[in-house]
Amino acid sequence: MKRITLFLCLVLSGAPVFAADFGLVLDNLSGWSSFDEEPQLQRDRATAWFSTPLGANFDLHASLRLEYRLTPEPSWFGSSSFGIDVGRLELMAIYPGNPDHPLTWSFGGGRFNYAFLGENIFTGRLDGFKAKIDVGRATYRFALGYLGLMPKEDTRTLLSADDVADYNDEAIFFAPPRLIAEATIMLPELFARQDFSFGFGSQFDLRGWTSEAPSELVHTQYLSFVLGGSLGRNIFQKAHLDMGIGELGEGLFVMAAAGYAVSLFMPELARARLELLIEYASGNTGFLSIWRPISERQMGFVYNVSFADCLSGTLDASFTPLKSLTAGVKGSLFLRTSMEALQDTSFDTASTASYLGTEADLYAIFKPSSDLSISASSGVFLPAAGLSYLPDASPRWLVSATVTLSL
Question: How far apart are CA 367 and CA 199, in angstroms?
């Protein structure tokens, strides 16, 4: 990072100094896997960023991303693509409080990163507006944004059949036209050193305005609760519950997701950390329908089925023997919560077994300086061959390495 100060105007005319931060981030991702459709992944990205104050309370942040991707065919010879995208373009304002007026508020508009309180619902970038107000110990937050100008790979919004068709259409670049909003309240240390937060989010399908004949419109609303804090010396917990209701055509559906994590820190043992995470996402069973988030994520590092209709348990152990080095091992077990067939080519559609498989991962992060980061991950997924998967289902593996340099 660099700071440049333009003194010329000040020296020649006595005008105020204009100051700005700017920099360049170079990122390389290389990966190899057992997946026939994508045995190799190569992504190189250059992000130029700029930040400057505009007056006493305003700041402007901007970044531009240039990206190169190589997606080989199974023969290892394939096509490459280039893309350019506005990563961030945000005008922010902060008005701090004082003893006479203990209220701090901030707002931003443009393109920015945002995560719903229920991280299983949405995490990504938005074009829109956000605001935050701190009153006493409470924090109030609101955001409103549009997804239709984002690259579809960034949002992975697959709520409807039209969304899936567009995502698989190489001629379509942008995400589905959807308007999303969220309002949250965060209350730190509400009781027994536990923070409590709750929020309400919505997404509205705008295909009726942008498409002449959408096959189906899907509108959804979400209610999220998060409770977390210390359970004792070096022991922490976090629990979340996300409930949703949606409108599909003329009908309504109900869905849910939940999770619980407990972490143990052992600073005297090479700063080791041990975490147990249990997650659930509803399937089509009973009165519940399959979980439909705004932005999808996959179940595991290797297991690339969408996180829905799933109950998983993960044990993650990591340690930091050096200040610049963190390494860890992680194991996950996956079950399905309904008898619906998964969208996986080697899945046995006639199976009634719940057990899906087990995944084991290794990872390491080396950060010798604030400007350089090197990470590597590897994993293998062992499908439940002969149970929920076909008897000839093979293990899947993935190896990736990322190098990030900030200039």
Answer: 35
Contact in structure between 175 and 150 (CB atoms under 8 Å)? yes
User: Pseudo-torsion of CA 151, 154, 155, 157, nearest 10°?
Assistant: 70
Cβ atoms of 255 and 248 closer than 8 Å:
no
Average pLDDT in the chain = 88
Contact 86, 123 (CB under 8 A): no
Taking a C-beta distance cutoff of 8 angstroms, is the pair 185, 197 a contact? yes
For residue 279, with 0-12 CB atoms within 10 Å meaning exposed, 13-18 middle and 19 or more buried, which class applies? buried
Strands 103-115 and 138-146: unpaired
Query: pLDDT by residue (tens digit) across 349-381?
Result: 888 899 999 999 999 999 999 999 999 999 999
Type of residue found at 383 = P
pLDDT > 70? residue 187: yes
Residue 82 has pLDDT above 90, yes or no: no
C-beta separation of 292 from 255 below 8 A: yes
Report the alpha-carbon distance of residue 393 to residue 289 in Å, rounded: 28
d(CA 311, CA 333): 8
In terms of Cβ atoms closer than 10 Å to its own Cβ (0-12, 13-18, 19+), residue 367 is middle
Residue 16 above 80 pLDDT?
A: no
The answer to whether 385 and 391 are in contact (CB under 8 A) is yes
| CB atoms closer than 10 angstroms to residue 407 | 12
The pLDDT, as a whole number, for residue 214 is: 65
Tell whether the torsion through CA atoms of 162, 167, 173 and 177 is positive or negative.
positive
- Is the pLDDT score of 192 beyond 60? yes
For residue 379, count other CB atoms closer than 10 A to its CB. Answer: 22
Given a cut of 80, whether residue 280 has pLDDT beyond it is yes
pLDDT at 286 exceeding the cut of 90: no
Note the pTM of the prediction, 2 decimals: 0.85
